[in-house]
Amino acid sequence: MQLDVRLPIGLMFSLFGLILAVLGLVQGSEQTQRLFGLNLDLAWGLVILAFGLVMLVFALRARKKNDGNGPAS
Amino acid sequence: MSHALTLTSIDYAILVIYFLFVLGIGFVLRRSVSGSKDFFESGRSLPAWICALGFIGANLGAQEVMGMAASGAKYGIMVSHFYWIGAIPAMVFVAVFMMPFYYGSKARSVPEYLKLRFDEKTRCFNALSFAFMTVMSSGISMYALAKLLNLILGWNFHGCIIVSGLIVLAYIFMGGLTSAIYNEVLQFFLIVLGFLPLVLLGLKDVGGWNGLVAKLAPVATKAGFASGAYVQSWSHTGSPADNPMGIEWFGLAMGLGFVLSFGYWCTDFLVLQRAMAAKDMGSARRTPILAAIPKMFFPFLVILPGMIAIALHSAGTGFQLPTKGTGLDYDMVVPTMLQHYLPTGMLGLGLTALMASFMSGMAGNVTAFNTVWTYDLYQSLRRWWGKPSPATIAYADGTVENVMFSRPEPADGHYLWMGRMTTIVGILLSMAAAYLAAKFNNIMDVLQLVFAFVNAPLFATFLLGMFWKRTTGHGAFWGLLMGTVAAGIHHGLTAPKGAVDVIKGGWLGHVYHTYPSEMAQNFWTAIWAFSTCLAVTIVITLFTARTKSDQELTGLVYSLTPKIKDHDLAWWKRPAVLGVIVLGAALALNLTFW
Question: Mutation test of the interface with chain B: which of A12, A18, A32, A51, choosing the one with the most B Cβ atoms within 10 A?
Answer without folding.
Answer: A12
